[in-house]
Amino acid sequence: MTAHHHSDPGQQAKRAAEYERWLGSSSLSARSIRWWMGPLGQWFANAPLYRLKANLKLDRTVRLLDIGVGRGTVMRMLDDALECDRAPVGLDVSRTALRLAAADEENPDRGAGLVQGSATALPFADGSFNLVLCGHLVKHLEDDDLRALFIEVRRVLEPGGLALIWEFGPTGHRALDAWNARRLSSGVRHPRLRSTNTLRRLAEESGFTFTRDADLRPFLLPPIPRASILIGRPPGED
Ligand SMILES: C[S@@+](CC[C@H](N)C(=O)[O-])C[C@H]1O[C@@H](n2cnc3c(N)ncnc32)[C@H](O)[C@@H]1O
Asked: Phi/psi of residue 91, each to 5°?
């Protein structure tokens, strides 16, 4: 890792603390984000993920890591649809999110792993997964932290593995983007809205040789565009 790829743990810890305070509070916006992370909210917020099995021709051999797993709704939906041989793993920096995820679990025997940790220092061995998801998280990361996330995602992917990253993106209209950023900052300050091209460039700078516009759609709510990329680790690379 070169010096300019260094992420700032202090900055991230501050962000994490903001999330923790927000998710656990009784404010209206905290109720709202908890709803967005639940079954109905996720169907509206993450509709294209419900077609991922068909779109990526996924099967039971998927070894899934969901970074920023929230309440675990998407992770469980995919695990149920694929009947994965190996239980998926969901990572989140927020203990409150992980508590909500554990409370939502209807089948504790499944033993889906819920792990507290940072997206930029993944506590997993090299090559542990063949599919990594990361939804609505990267707006909270500065460029250096996002590069660190990509480097970590590439490390934990086995050769041939894929990662799908999606996030609120810019509209191309400055005033509207400023308005959207304000709406998204009710709990966590200064979200960064990046285009698909910017996400691809940062992934390439971090070592990914395969990057594509994943063009996930339609996202139903909230009415803010999304940017999404599919990146992978072709076999035969170091
Ligand atoms: C808006 S929620 C997204 C939930 C779900 N993945 C989705 O797509 O809707 C973002 C989640 O990312 C977590 N998060 C934010 N920054 C993180 C970081 N640096 N490392 C790990 N998790 C983080 C938050 O605690 C929160 O649960």
From this structure: -115, 140
Torsion sign (Cα): 133, 139, 144, 145: negative
pTM > 0.90: yes
| Total number of domains constituting the chain | 1
Which residue range is the domain that position 15 belongs to?
3-232
CATH number of domain containing 47: 3.40.50.150
Residue 237 lies in a domain: no
Q: How many whole angstroms separate alpha carbon 167 and alpha carbon 226?
A: 5
85-141: pLDDT as tens digits: 999 999 999 999 999 999 998 887 887 799 999 999 999 999 999 999 999 999 999
Contact between 16 and 118 under an 8 Å Cβ cutoff? The reply is yes
Tell how far the Cα of 236 is from the centroid of ligand 1, in angstroms: 32
Q: Is 238 domain-assigned?
A: no
The ligand 1 atom at the shortest distance from the C-alpha of residue 134 is 6
